[in-house]
Specification:
Shape: globular
Largest sheet: 6 strands, antiparallel
Structural class: alpha+beta
Radius of gyration: 20 Å
Order of helices and strands: EEHHEEHEEEEEEEEEHHEHEHEHEH
Number of helices: 9
Low-confidence stretches: none
CATH class of the largest domain: Alpha Beta
Strand content: 25-35%
Number of domains: 2
CATH superfamily of the largest domain: SGNH hydrolase
Number of strands: 17
């Protein structure tokens, strides 16, 4: 096996838009870290949304990983903490006819959470059959990365992947739900499901317990050339007053730099405390939407998250009456995808 750093061509690593500037896998610019709360600085280094893409005819595949830190938690699965999801674009996968979209074929995950580990991909021969296959590998959602190397057979060919159908990234800004907790593995978050369905590039700026409409983050988003920006931080706002003070301003800060960028506003999908619990908060988000329309913004849309789940469904679609499980993320992706598709 020959191990290659994913930062080198022909690998394509996406999801870290300031990677060259930072020199690390921080999801936001290092230069603005001092403007942010400690919690956001901590979770910004979690690698949610990263994708490693390449083509190879190797019949074996390994990943050698060194973590920046270990955030092992009894509330999170190994696949979420340290696992890499492997997808392949192929006509035939494990003997089953498939379309040419990306199909999940396995998770590369250590048995525990060491700071450094090397794990082989448990492939079936029909998945790694010596043909040129295109791979998409999602990075873990939680444990921050220091370095990643992909191991392939020494004689294997390796090439750049095909271009995304939607090349400019779709960016999601929001909470731990946006980040993907508690999906069972990285490829099942709602941003991953949506962008995979569209064959689109992804930037996930979901920050657990931390995304609260920071102007520094809005300015950083304005630096990027995007296809669409989803603003989904209702969950993290401490109260209605905080939303009133930040939500419209966050939108306007992005608009200063990106006047024509399609923006999708989403309110929280909470129903288990009764529809009135988040009524006032939704009104704040709706007011940002109405403000944008009154000022001639034709690239704005709003989704009422309260319509994602019926009240009686909430327990079965979450792991803790708060964070969606895999079924919950599938429902969110189903409800959000049409608005993003219409904006592209």
């Amino acid at each position: 096996m020959l191990f290659r750093d994913i930062l080198n061509e022909p690998f394509e690593i996406t999801g870290y838009p300031w990677l060259k500037e930072n020199g690390d896998f921080n999801r936001i610019p290092n230069r603005i870290m001092g403007e942010l709360e400690d919690q956001l600085q901590w979770v910004a280094r979690q690698p949610s949304g990263g994708m490693i893409r390449f083509k190879t005819n190797s019949r074996r595949l390994s990943i050698d990983v060194e973590l920046l830190r270990n955030e092992s938690s009894c509330t999170c699965s190994q696949a979420l903490l340290s696992g890499f999801d492997v997808y392949i674009k192929a006509d035939i996968i494990a003997g089953i006819k498939a379309d040419k979209g990306m199909r999940f074929v396995g998770n590369i995950c250590p048995e525990n959470n060491p700071i450094q580990y090397c794990v082989d991909f448990p492939a079936d021969p029909e998945q790694m059959d010596g043909r040129m296959n295109e791979f998409l590998i999602y990075t873990p959602l939680q444990n921050p990365l220091k370095s990643v190397k992909v191991g392939l057979e020494q004689s294997a060919l390796i090439e750049k992947p095909e271009s995304f159908a939607v090349q400019k990234p779709i960016l999601f800004y929001g909470s731990s739900i946006t980040c993907g907790f508690s999906a069972s593995r990285p490829g099942l978050t709602y941003p991953a499901r949506i962008t995979r369905a569209l064959n689109a590039n992804l930037i996930n700026l979901g920050f657990g317990g931390a995304a609260k409409g920071e102007k520094a983050i809005a300015r950083a988003i304005g630096e990027l050339d995007l296809s669409c920006c989803v603003i989904d931080y209702d969950y993290n706002a401490p109260n209605k007053e905080h939303l009133e003070n930040t939500h419209k301003e966050f939108y306007l800060e992005i608009r200063k730099a990106r006047s024509d960028l399609p923006i999708v506003l989403i309110s929280a999908p909470f129903n288990h405390k009764g529809p009135e619990y988040f009524w006032d908060r939704r009104k704040v988000i709706e007011s940002t939407y109405q403000f944008a329309l009154r000022n001639g913004d034709k690239n704005i849309s709003y989704i009422n998250g309260g319509e994602f789940f019926a009240e009686e469904e909430w327990a079965d679609f979450t792991v803790d009456m708060l964070h969606p499980n895999d079924n919950g993320f599938a429902r969110m992706a189903e409800k959000i995808l049409p608005a993003i598709t219409a904006s592209l």
